[in-house]
Amino acid sequence: MEKITVVKIGGNVIDDPAALRGFLADFASLPGAKILVHGGGKLATRLAQKLELQVQMVDGRRITDKGTLDIVTMVYAGLVNKQLVAGLQAAGCNALGLSGADGNAVMARRRAPEPIDYGFVGDIESVNHTLLGELLGAGVTPVFCAIMHDGQGTLLNCNADSVASSVALGAARIAPTELVFCFEKSGVLRDPEDETTLIREITAESYAALKAGGIVSKGMIPKVENALKAVANGVRSVTIKHSENLLNDTGTVIR
C-alpha cells in the first residue's frame, strides 16, 4: 500500500442525512486504502435524555456510567455504525463495521478514577495493526465506532478522536498514513460562529496559547490534542476540516 487515509467523522454531520450521504460518497471515492472512524454523541445524548439518564461532560469527554455505556454501545456500535456501513456499500465501498472487541482490533484500559471518575471510559492501549493490514489488503474498509474492550469482557466508551488517532498510529506501521478529522466547521476557528476566522496551522507551541486563551475549548480539546499526538508519533499529516471539504486541500493543518 502506498498510503492509508484514516478519516474521523462526527458532529452534526452524523445527524444530517443529506450531509452524511454526501460525505460517504466523497469518502468512498478516496483513492487507495482507507479507514473510517465515527462518533455519534448527539444521538446517544438524545436517547439518554428520553430514558431520563443524566448526561455529564467534562472537557468534551462523556462520563459513562453503566446505563450510559449500554446506550452508547447500542447507538455507536449498533445503529450509527451499521447505517454508515450500509451507506458505504451503497456508494460502492466494501465496508466492515467494527468495535474494538471485534477481531481484538483495539484494546483499552479503564481510566483511573482520579482526579475525575469517568466510569466506563477507556484509554487506548494497543491497535491490532496486523488485522488492519489484512482487511485493507483484502480490499475491505474498516469502519470503527468508539466502543473498545479491555480483554476481560468489559466494553469501554472511548473518545472517537482518540480512537482515530490511535488507529492512524497503528496504520502508520503498515504504510504512510494521513489522518483527517471531519465535522461541521471549516477547521479550528478563533470564533466558532465565524467561518472566516479559520486557523490555518497549529503546532504544539501555538496550541498551548490557544487553549490557555479559551480559543480551543470543550470538544475541540481532545480533537487537537489527539492530532498533535498523532503527528508527533509517526502519522504523516493531520488535517481538521469541514466534511464537505474532504476531497479539497483546506482546513487546519496540525504540525
Helices and strands, with pairings:
Elements: E1 4-9, H1 17-29, E2 33-38, H2 41-50, E3 56-58, E4 61-63, H3 66-90, E5 95-98, E6 106-110, E7 122-127, H4 129-137, E8 141-144, E9 147-149, E10 155-157, H5 160-171, E11 177-183, E12 201-202, H6 204-212, H7 220-232, E13 237-242, E14 252-254
Parallel strand pairs: 1-2, 1-11, 2-8, 5-8, 11-13, 12-14
Antiparallel strand pairs: 3-4, 6-7, 9-10, 13-14
Q: Report the oligomer.
A: single chain
- On the 0 to 100 scale, the average pLDDT is 94
Number-wise, the strands total 14
Roughly what percent helix?
Answer: 25-40%
Largest sheet: 8 strands, mixed
List keywords for this structure.
255 residues; alpha/beta; eight-stranded mixed sheet; 7 helices; 14 strands; 24% strand; globular; Acetylglutamate kinase; transferase
What does the model show?
Catalyzes the ATP-dependent phosphorylation of N-acetyl-L-glutamate. Residues 3-241 form the Aspartate/glutamate/uridylate kinase domain. It is an enzyme of class 2 (transferase). It is found in: Cytoplasm. The chain is of the alpha/beta class. It has seven helices and 14 strands. The chain has helices spanning 17-29, 41-50, 66-90, 129-137, 160-171, 204-212, 220-232, and strands at residues 4-9, 33-38, 56-58, 61-63, 95-98, 106-110, 122-127, 141-144, 147-149, 155-157, 177-183, 201-202, 237-242, 252-254. The mean pLDDT is 94.
